[in-house]
């Protein structure tokens, strides 16, 4: 996967903004670009029709349903198809037609997508629901379809964060790799069903040499086999990557920690002998929430192993895992720590592999993103790493803080690395936080896109000098929505004229505090690009 760079991000955000703008601009006649009410279908209403979930949901719907026609892609046909339709007084989408064409195949695909729209909240005029026209532009761009959308990287069945840069991998550790593109709706559906919604733009599957070696080693072991389960096998045991919802103890991680801490007894012989370590216990949480088939997965002192199994046997029933809405059996690996010194943790360890989850002592954070627990440090090409540091919790308080910030598996320490590429592009907000190009959850303006458009339209003043010179066009502005939701580092990416540029910056300065974006569930600073049209 290649991170979305500035030049790739701008067209995509412009596309989203243009869609929103078209939601409140009406055209019917191709010659004069104007809408007129005909046959009780209105061009202007008091309250606009609304897509279920708002404009953000509409953007997501269009992106997920768009399938670039193969013949158009081969012919390098690209552009923007503008589709007009009517939202009836009952919310139905009817009378779909193209008012600006690109090619027959792209026109057909645009009409197909719009025909899939669910029922809308109808528009209103004088307090009465009425039928009215709507327009939506559907943009087709070969480069966007092929490169701009992030592909999910999966290494040995471990899903990486969407901003993971595959170039940091150590080639000597890689056995095979496959790029799976969503060339058809059917293929896209298969990828999403297997890996989740992050796979909608494609998947890069990578398999390491260790994975290949492990498969050969455990093929005869029924418990560890990686063979895919049959879809209709109700007794199948799934790995973590194959379920939609992981099992959980009632009371969560805090309750699990409490049970382990209250019941774990350090064997006297191990304490006196200075024997310490982590026991990795793997078990099945069945569809009823029962814990079964607990086994120790690493070579460890037998006294520590026996005590870990005893403690696991005391854990009560869990909330079972789910797949496609049904309760299923799933494998789960639980680390149980035996330590003599609260302040001492060995930094090196052997890496274990159980068929779906590799286990390392330190959780790895790369370029600000937490990698899945089990990512092997050997997979990184250290020549691509600019710097790193190891953070280890010193006491129970810090362990809790680590767990909140990095997740459950961070209590043995966190290896935090910055790649050279990320360092070269590293940008910080006024609080010293990393500024991302793309985050998992984008920032939102209070009240949504409708309020944002309202702010701009109510406050934008067309400079008199620009009008006199008949200057018209679009100013592209970029700014940072920081982790507090404040706007900072506003700059002009594409200028129109000095007076228009100045006015665009003035309007941006009037914005309220945003709802900040999030990365790994934590508020994060992110660049936002907005076109201001004159």
What does this molecule look like?
The chain has 534 residues and is α+β, with helices and mostly antiparallel strands. The protein folds into four domains: 1-147, no CATH class; 148-214, no CATH class; 242-424, no CATH class; 432-534, 2-Layer Sandwich (TolA/TonB C-terminal domain). The chain is 27% helix and 28% strand. The protein contains 15 helices and 27 strands. The strands form seven sheets. Strands 1, 2, 3, 4 and 5 form a five-stranded mixed sheet that branches. Strands 10, 12, 13, 15 and 16 form a five-stranded mixed sheet that branches. The longest helix has 17 residues, at 6-22. It is globular.
Write the layout of secondary structure elements.
Layout: H1 6-22, E1 41-42, H2 55-65, H3 70-74, E2 79-87, E3 93-100, H4 104-115, E4 123-125, E5 128-140, H5 142-148, E6 152-155, E7 158-159, E8 174-180, H6 185-195, E9 203-208, H7 209-218, E10 237-238, E11 248-249, H8 252-263, H9 268-272, E12 277-285, E13 291-296, H10 302-313, E14 318-319, E15 321-323, E16 326-338, E17 352-353, E18 358-359, E19 363-366, E20 369-370, E21 385-391, H11 396-406, E22 414-419, H12 420-424, E23 435-436, H13 448-459, H14 464-468, E24 474-481, E25 487-494, H15 498-508, E26 517-519, E27 522-533
């Amino acid at each position: 996967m290649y991170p979305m760079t500035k030049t790739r991000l701008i067209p995509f955000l412009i596309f989203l903004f243009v869609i929103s703008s078209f939601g409140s601009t009406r055209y019917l006649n191709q010659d004069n670009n104007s809408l007129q009410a005909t046959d009780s279908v209105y061009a202007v209403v008091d309250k606009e029709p609304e897509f279920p979930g708002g404009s953000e949901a509409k953007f997501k719907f269009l992106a997920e349903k768009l399938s670039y026609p193969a013949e158009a892609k081969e012919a390098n046909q690209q552009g923007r198809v503008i589709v007009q339709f009517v939202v009836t007084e009952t919310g139905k989408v009817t009378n779909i037609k193209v008012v600006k064409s690109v090619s027959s195949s792209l026109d057909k695909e645009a009409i197909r997508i719009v025909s899939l729209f669910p029922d809308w909240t109808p528009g209103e005029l004088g307090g009465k629901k009425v039928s009215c026209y709507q327009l939506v532009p559907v943009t087709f761009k070969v480069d966007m379809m092929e490169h701009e959308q992030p592909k999910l990287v999966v290494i040995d069945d471990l899903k990486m964060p969407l901003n993971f840069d595959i170039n940091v991998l150590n080639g000597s550790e890689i056995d095979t790799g496959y790029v799976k593109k969503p060339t058809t709706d059917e293929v896209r559906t298969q990828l999403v069903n297997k890996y989740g919604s992050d796979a909608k733009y494609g998947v890069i599957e990578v398999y390491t040499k260790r994975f290949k070696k492990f498969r050969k080693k455990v093929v005869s072991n029924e418990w560890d086999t990686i063979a895919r389960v049959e879809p209709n096998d109700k007794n199948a045991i799934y790995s973590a990557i194959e379920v939609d919802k992981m099992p959980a103890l009632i009371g969560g991680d805090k309750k699990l920690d409490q049970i382990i801490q209250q019941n774990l007894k350090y064997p006297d012989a191990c304490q006196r002998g200075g024997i310490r370590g982590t026991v990795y216990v793997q078990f099945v949480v069945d569809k009823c929430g029962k814990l079964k088939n607990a086994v120790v997965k690493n070579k460890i002192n037998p006294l520590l192993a026996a005590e870990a199994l005893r403690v696991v046997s005391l854990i009560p029933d869990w909330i079972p895992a789910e797949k496609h809405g049904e309760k299923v059996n799933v494998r789960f690996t639980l680390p149980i720590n035996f330590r003599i010194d609260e302040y001492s943790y060995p930094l090196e360890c052997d890496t274990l592999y159980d068929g779906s989850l590799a286990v390392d002592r330190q959780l790895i954070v790369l370029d600000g993103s937490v990698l899945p627990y089990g990512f092997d440090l050997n997979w990184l090409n250290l020549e691509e790493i600019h710097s790193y540091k190891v953070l280890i919790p010193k006491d129970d308080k810090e362990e809790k803080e680590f767990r909140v910030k990095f997740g459950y598996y961070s209590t043995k320490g966190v290896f935090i690395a910055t790649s050279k590429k990320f360092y070269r592009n590293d940008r910080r907000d006024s609080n010293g936080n990393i500024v991302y190009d793309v985050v998992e959850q984008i920032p939102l303006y209070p009240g949504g896109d409708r309020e944002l458009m309202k702010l701009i339209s109510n406050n934008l003043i067309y400079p008199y000098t620009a009008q006199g010179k008949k200057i018209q066009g679009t100013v592209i502005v970029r700014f940072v929505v920081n982790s507090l939701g404040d706007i900072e580092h506003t700059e002009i990416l594409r200028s129109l004229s000095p007076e228009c540029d100045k006015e665009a910056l003035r309007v941006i300065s009037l914005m309220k505090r945003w709802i900040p974006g999030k990365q790994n569930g934590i508020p994060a600073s992110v660049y936002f690009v907005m076109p201001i049209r004159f």
